């Protein structure tokens, strides 16, 4: 059986400190020093003094939580209540019928016919590239990626882009970041969340609502009859679907904020990590650029099929998501008495009993960096801690060893949209720029987890045109 190791006060203080110092992965992995030989990758503790929690990086456990015993695990009432001010009763905070209805509403927006139309991507990426310029001046790619994905998400899902690339939405962006940072802290400290000051958090929620509610009221201003007529048209958006489903502005607001979080932050973070890594490996950048130019040339807009048929591009994205899954930490609550399939008994080959109300903390970030889940390091297979798209040429991860979008019924509904946007953006930038250089000390970068894991120092680079384009 897993070992019980923590006192509630110790856990709360260490969690708060680790979050402030961007050491959550270190803290998460540190608990396994107390694990048993029979169960080396799962530890049972009592972190908040009032409930049991299982901290795990075991693929079979994650599989059970997300699919095998899916009905037994959910967000739970405590998580829902804690996150309600931010994400309300949305797809990310609910279980059962509410969750199923939310997912059914969102799914039609991500069918292939909609995400394979890349026209929105092209307009927004071209606007961003214009801001990158051609002089090799330093630029923070992460800032631009977050603005671009905000523009794409608002136009694709809400029907109207806000043009933050041209007019940075500084107040909203800061509020969104503040609320996520504090929300992560409130979740980490559990029952002690009542002691945490909420002034910045509450102000941030008001700013987010001020940004979102005009979209909501605009959709609700359309008569139901008009919405029904638009259902077969390309202009029918996620917002229209919500307004057709309910006339409750709070319900619509909750879903809109959730898709903004999922559509903007996860994609921008993945792009940021990709270019951070590419800036340190000029040979990988050159190899990727060669594949792109051979497939689409220096100018042609890539199609959805182009993106699917560039293997090294897919390897590069996969490798980025392996090292930096967008949502690095997750939590589930047992909704009924259930089990985790391995780790119990003297030999670890029996199930672990999980009681209703117990919590399972899991990290795809930690699991996907476990060296023992990979082949031995060799001349042809890089150390798992190293960015190496080439590993995907000869290696396929075992089931549940690589789950950057989660899995099972709650698998990310927008993953194909995100992969298309990521791939398209990489292609367009590498078509134009021959190389890039990191500005500053590459090794001083750190992983900042505020729901989504981002580069803590931004991604400051210089981009250089081919010599012929300079002339």
TrEMBL record:
<dbReference type="InterPro" id="IPR047146">
    <property type="entry name" value="Cyt_P450_E_CYP52_fungi"/>
</dbReference>
<dbReference type="InterPro" id="IPR002974">
    <property type="entry name" value="Cyt_P450_E_CYP52_ascomycetes"/>
</dbReference>
<keyword id="KW-0479">Metal-binding</keyword>
<dbReference type="InterPro" id="IPR001128">
    <property type="entry name" value="Cyt_P450"/>
</dbReference>
<keyword id="KW-0503">Monooxygenase</keyword>
<dbReference type="InterPro" id="IPR036396">
    <property type="entry name" value="Cyt_P450_sf"/>
</dbReference>
<dbReference type="GO" id="GO:0020037">
    <property type="term" value="F:heme binding"/>
</dbReference>
<dbReference type="InterPro" id="IPR017972">
    <property type="entry name" value="Cyt_P450_CS"/>
</dbReference>
<dbReference type="GO" id="GO:0016712">
    <property type="term" value="F:oxidoreductase activity, acting on paired donors, with incorporation or reduction of molecular oxygen, reduced flavin or flavoprotein as one donor, and incorporation of one atom of oxygen"/>
</dbReference>
<keyword id="KW-0408">Iron</keyword>
<keyword id="KW-0349">Heme</keyword>
<dbReference type="Pfam" id="PF00067">
    <property type="entry name" value="p450"/>
</dbReference>
<keyword id="KW-0560">Oxidoreductase</keyword>
<protein>
    <submittedName>
        <fullName>Cytochrome p450</fullName>
    </submittedName>
</protein>
<dbReference type="GO" id="GO:0005506">
    <property type="term" value="F:iron ion binding"/>
</dbReference>
<comment type="similarity">
    <text>Belongs to the cytochrome P450 family.</text>
</comment>
């Amino acid at each position: 059986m897993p070992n019980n190791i923590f006192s509630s006060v110790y856990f709360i203080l260490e969690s708060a400190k680790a979050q402030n110092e961007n050491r959550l992965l270190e803290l998460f992995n540190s608990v396994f020093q107390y694990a048993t030989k029979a169960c080396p990758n799962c530890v049972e503790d009592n972190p908040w003094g009032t409930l049991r929690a299982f901290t795990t990086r075991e693929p079979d456990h994650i599989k059970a939580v997300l699919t095998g015993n899916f009905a037994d695990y959910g967000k739970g009432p405590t998580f829902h209540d804690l996150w309600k001010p931010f994400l309300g009763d949305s797809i990310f905070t609910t279980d059962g019928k509410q969750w199923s209805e939310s997912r059914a509403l969102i799914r039609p927006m991500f069918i292939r016919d909609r995400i394979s139309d890349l026209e929105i991507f092209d307009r927004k990426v071209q606007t961003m590239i214009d801001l990158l310029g051609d002089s090799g001046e330093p630029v923070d790619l992460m800032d631009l990626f977050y603005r671009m994905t905000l523009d794409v998400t608002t136009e694709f899902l809400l029907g109207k882009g806000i043009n933050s690339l041209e007019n940075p939405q500084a107040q909203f962006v800061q509020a969104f970041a503040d609320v996520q940072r504090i929300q992560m802290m409130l979740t980490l400290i559990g029952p002690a969340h009542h002691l945490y000051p909420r002034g910045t958090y509450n102000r941030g929620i008001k700013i987010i609502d001020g940004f979102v509610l005009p979209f909501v009221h605009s959709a609700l201003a359309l008569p139901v009859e008009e919405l029904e007529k638009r259902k077969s048209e390309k202009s029918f958006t996620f917002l229209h679907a919500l307004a057709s489903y309910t006339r409750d502005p709070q319900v619509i607001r909750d879903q809109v904020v959730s898709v903004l979080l999922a559509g903007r932050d996860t994609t921008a973070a993945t792009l940021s990590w990709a270019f951070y890594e590419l800036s340190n490996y000029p040979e990988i950048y050159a190899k990727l650029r060669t594949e792109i130019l051979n497939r689409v040339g220096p100018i042609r807009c890539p199609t959805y099929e182009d993106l699917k048929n560039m293997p090294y591009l897919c390897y590069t994205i996969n490798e980025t998501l392996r090292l930096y899954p967008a949502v690095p930490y997750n939590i589930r609550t047992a909704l009924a008495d259930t089990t985790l399939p391995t780790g119990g008994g003297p030999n670890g080959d029996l199930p672990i009993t999980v009681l209703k109300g117990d919590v399972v903390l899991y990290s795809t970030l930690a699991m996907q960096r476990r060296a023992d889940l990979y082949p031995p390091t060799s001349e042809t297979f890089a150390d798992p801690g190293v960015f190496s798209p080439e590993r995907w040429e000869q290696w396929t991860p075992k089931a549940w060893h690589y789950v950057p979008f989660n899995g099972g019924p709650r698998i990310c509904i927008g993953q194909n949209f995100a992969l298309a946007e990521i791939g398209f953006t990489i292609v367009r930038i590498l078509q134009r720029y021959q190389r890039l250089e990191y500005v500053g000390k590459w090794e001083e970068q750190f992983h900042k987890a505020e729901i989504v894991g981002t580069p803590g120092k931004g991604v400051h680079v210089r981009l250089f045109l081919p010599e012929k384009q300079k002339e």
